[in-house]
Amino acid sequence: SYVLTQAPSVSVAPGQTARITCGGDNIGSKGVHWYQQRPGLAPVLVVNDDYERPSGISERFSGSNSGNTATLTITRVEGGDEADYYCQVWSDKSSDHMIWVFGGGTKLTVL
Amino acid sequence: QVHLEQSGAEVKKTGASAEVSCKAAGFTFSAYFMHWVRQAPGQGLEWMGVINARTGRTTYAQKFQDSITMTTDTSTKTIYLQLRTLKSADTAMYYCARSTGTAGRFDYWGQGTLVTVSS
């Protein structure tokens, strides 16, 4: 089955840039979506289809995807950005049937 | 305004069944695909399956093939997740989410329903 690999945690000081990566076999050929989940709340879509930003999401959030790595970048990090972040792709490989896959999640800590 | 309202928390005994509902509002229900996502305590997100809100056609993750059933009621704009033969490992928050097409992003989520399974 298709596997997405995320680092368990990333720490960054306020005002700095956080980069959260998502690794997968030839992930660059897939559309990647990113979700933010604050404690006790449902996930929120922050980037879809590699780099598109949904309405209402800060321009500080951006995404890229190439080769075997997709990246969520958060510039000018604020305390309110502290959350778990998940990447997601849709896989239609015959061995995987038709499924959605989430990465294991990365906890962003703002120092 | 798009809103997904889920049913309340449930406590079940091991071996019992549970049903979680997700009522949609603010959009054309039959035009979308609806998903269920599980999150065990302290763990990550796990996709369970998807249902075509109009036709009721389903695709389940292989892991859940034998233990869940998803259904839709277009008259009430509600989807349901039935969980069978519950185990303690099924204790989790269950979320419904909307996508535009089976490959689309999950753009709106319900608030989650906690199902607790104990002996």
Quickly list its features.
heterodimer; A: 111 residues; mainly beta; 6-stranded mixed beta sheet; 3-stranded antiparallel beta sheet; 0% helix; B: 119 residues; 11 strands
The coarse overall form of chain B would be globular
Largest sheet of chain A: 6 strands, mixed
Number of helices of chain A: 0
- Secondary-structure element sequence of chain A? EEEEEEEEE
Low-confidence stretches of chain A: none
Outline of chain A = globular
Q: List how many beta strands of chain A DSSP finds.
A: 9
Instruction: State the end-to-end CA separation of chain A.
Output: 36 Å
Cα separation of the termini of chain B = 41 Å
Number of helices of chain B: 0
Give the strand tally of chain B.
11
Q: Ranges of chain B with pLDDT <50 over ≥5 residues?
A: none
Helix content of chain B: under 10%
Share of β-strand residues of chain A: 35-45%
Write structural notes for this entry.
The complex is a heterodimer of chains A (111) and B (119). With 111 residues, chain A is mainly β. Chain A has no helices and nine strands. In chain A, strands 1, 3, 4, 7, 8 and 9 form a six-stranded mixed beta sheet that branches. A three-stranded antiparallel beta sheet of chain A has the order 2-6-5, with no helix packed on it. In chain A, β7 (83-91) and β8 form a beta hairpin. Chain A is globular. The model of chain A has no long low-confidence stretch (mean pLDDT 94). Chain B is mainly beta. Chain B has no helices and eleven strands. In chain B, strands 2, 4, 5, 6, 9, 10 and 11 form a seven-stranded mixed beta sheet that branches. The N and C termini of chain B lie far apart (41 Å).
